[in-house]
Amino acid sequence: LSSNHPTDLKQLHLPGSNRRVLLIERPHGVPQPAHFRIEEDARPHPAPGEFLVRNLYLSVDAAQRGWATDANNYSQAVPLGATMRALTVGVVVESRASEVTEGTWLYGWFGWQDYCVATPAAILQPVDPKRAPPSTYVGILGMNGLTAYLALMDIGQPRAGETVLVSAAAGGVGTVVGQIAKLLGCNVIGLVGSDDKARTCRERFGYAEALNHRRADLAEALRVACPKGIDVYFDNVGGTLLDLSLRNMAARGRVIQCGTVSHTSWSPTPTGLRNEREILVRRLRWEGFIIFDHVHRFPAATAQLLAWLDEGALTYEEDVSQGIESAPRALAELYAGDNIGKKLIYIG
Amino acid sequence: LSSNHPTDLKQLHLPGSNRRVLLIERPHGVPQPAHFRIEEDARPHPAPGEFLVRNLYLSVDAAQRGWATDANNYSQAVPLGATMRALTVGVVVESRASEVTEGTWLYGWFGWQDYCVATPAAILQPVDPKRAPPSTYVGILGMNGLTAYLALMDIGQPRAGETVLVSAAAGGVGTVVGQIAKLLGCNVIGLVGSDDKARTCRERFGYAEALNHRRADLAEALRVACPKGIDVYFDNVGGTLLDLSLRNMAARGRVIQCGTVSHTSWSPTPTGLRNEREILVRRLRWEGFIIFDHVHRFPAATAQLLAWLDEGALTYEEDVSQGIESAPRALAELYAGDNIGKKLIYIG
Q1: ipTM, 2 decimals?
Q2: Distance from the A275 Cα atom to the nearest Cα atom in chain B, whole angstroms
Q3: Would you call A283 and B273 a contact, using CB atoms and an 8 Å cutoff?
Q4: In this structure, are residues B153 and B30 in contact, taking their beta carbons and an 8 Å threshold?
């Protein structure tokens, strides 16, 4: 972490108290404002081995729905009454951990709150605000961009000339997948929830075509857009769009299961078309991807994303809310599909 | 093919006519006797470039249900009025193809009939009756054994100490999977349709445990048999056993979709539990396997299977019907689960 340029802490607004967004009720589907309460406590102080982060950018991620639920997830649920689990970018304002320097910017598990007392285990990546805007470290350089890049390369293994379909194409992950797949020479098709998003995907994010999944003739439009079948399906949504896509896969196609936001509760398990016959007859490979299995690869992947940003080969969009008061409604907004690009909250 | 020992054709019974099992009606589910008719024609003769095979062993394979159907498969449907597509082992009794010697035994696409006029493109593998009983070339050395070996190694990638679950464990594929997984040091668990099959799987085919899937407490029994979760699920059946197995997979488990016999029609598509959330949160890799994508690997794979047979490391069971008259009912019997091991028909 010593390679970062420490920031002048005097330039930061450092509130005297700590506002925390607590999860107070277990949501069944998407967390709504009523599932949270904002509480104001004294600004905490780190014990030996700990440090204090002043959060500036709070990430809003679809995965937080699962973290708030106590069923069917890959991690322990956020306890009721605890600060909502979240990734953030912040600055170390006080450190009693020898390897963490005051003034350093970090990306990590610091939660939806003004301040976080943390140990180094909570750090995901160092942030260099001279290298890229610090907000990008919760977006295109954070979980979203890293997921887009690593899942596409690892599981999708797209080759030039192949057709790559992406659902939630206008979101924080999809906007990056489209551009990288285009850079790799693929024919990239997006599925989105509005004509406006479709236009943005085509104009800015590498998509040769983007289809509003609400159109009545979606099945036919998808066949027309993917005349040789889909070689890679980067799926952020699951549900009926997944079923339709599987039935349009080319032989030996790859399916990346990165999210399942089309269903907002998995308890009880929703029902739908059986898909094993498609897996068999098309010889598909369908694989789940959780970015936190790949933390050791973040430095190299971030370097690649930064290089593409430097070249102007990648661009991004941020949907920034102001103030921690916007956090309790942020997941409902995200699941409503209001945003284009990365949804985040600035609390500086 | 020259390495085979030509057989003395005088030892063979060579009927003067050719009985063929024709597909005369398109089945909706499993082909029943009424979907076939046996027709007797003159014994055919090969044209230049062709050869004539006298079939001796007809294979009965679950995949034939799909070949007889005109929907949702990986190959063209058998035309109505044509001889039922099947793999067989037979002897070349007349050859006008320079590369095919009379008296040679072959495994190939020679159909449910006494004789087949074929070109060399129909050959899958040479058969050496001095090396192993020729019937084994439609079973443990044929499609079933090759599928078991290649799919398990390619997709399953089992490591010693891992738990491998196999459905249709007592069938032509499952009996081989169990033994190979055991050879690799795995804890092998089978799912079968009767207590008798379960016992046979445990006693003869490498299974540490085999569960009758009809038992009321199957979910609990599966959890007990796989306390650390399932690392590899070799699935021949699909359906609700697949759903249950997915929910008992260990993180980063592999699912081999090799068959889907629990549903006998896929038109219209059956419905069931949505599984994409399991793929995601458990980071599963689920892949379809069709043996005919791997024909170039048959010689090496067969050599490995023969070596294991020679060592006594592999054994097999055959369920042999007599006479071509038994062919029309054979698929109904197979789907009823009457057989243990490879189901085939001897017509010599």
Answers
A1: 0.95
A2: 8
A3: no
A4: no
